[in-house]
Structures are given as C-alpha cells and as structure tokens.
Amino acid sequence: MEPQVVDRPEKSRYEILAGDDGTETAGFAEYFLAEDEIAFIHTETDPRFAGRGLAGRLARGALEDARARGLRVLPYCPFIRGWIRKHPEYADRVPETRRARFGL
C-alpha cells in the first residue's frame, strides 16, 4: 500500500501512514494553526521507517495541503525549512517579509 499523508487536526499534526496495511504512523509534522497561517514546529519519523523517503513525502503532502487551503507557512521546524530550501517552488507559501528570517 502506498504511504499517505493525512491531517489530524485534533492532534495538530500531519501524519504519514505506511506499513504493510498502510495504517501505521511512520512520522508526523506538528503544527500550530492560527487564522491563515500554519507554523510547522516539529517533524519526526519513526526509526523503523528511516531511509524510505517518507519524511520528504510528509513535507510535500503537508505543504500541498497548506497551499490548497491558502495558508501561509511559517517553517520553524528545521526539517520543513530545509525541505523548502531544496524545493523552492514551495517558498511562495512563506510570507515574503519573513523569508529572510527563515533563510529562504
């Protein structure tokens, strides 16, 4: 089963589900949502799933959802920030006045 990214608003995080049956939480990206901004604060991957590219899929899925919802992104999480640096097509989600603060 293909891994999928799901928003868990009750936990304030996106999760990537993987494993044999596609129901195991392989990683998550915690966020704080306020009005039209989403601040990513922490990303973590279960070591059992390391090396499979799931963290990148998680970042892409979360940022795609933020784009679809018209949310501005504040990448306080070092992983999300670094991922945006490697994929500058997502930098437009970070408010222009705050990009320098995040090194974007």
UniProtKB/TrEMBL annotation:
All copies of domain N-acetyltransferase, residue ranges: 1-104, 6-95
Keyword Ribosomal protein: no
Record-linked InterPro entries: Acyl_CoA_acyltransferase, Gcn5-rel_NAT, GNAT_dom, GNAT_YJDJ
Annotated keywords: Transferase
A Gene Ontology molecular function term of the record: acyltransferase activity, transferring groups other than amino-acyl groups
One Pfam family named in its UniProt record: Acetyltransf_CG
Top-rank taxon, per record: Bacteria
Keyword Transferase appears in the UniProt entry: yes
Protein name: N-acetyltransferase
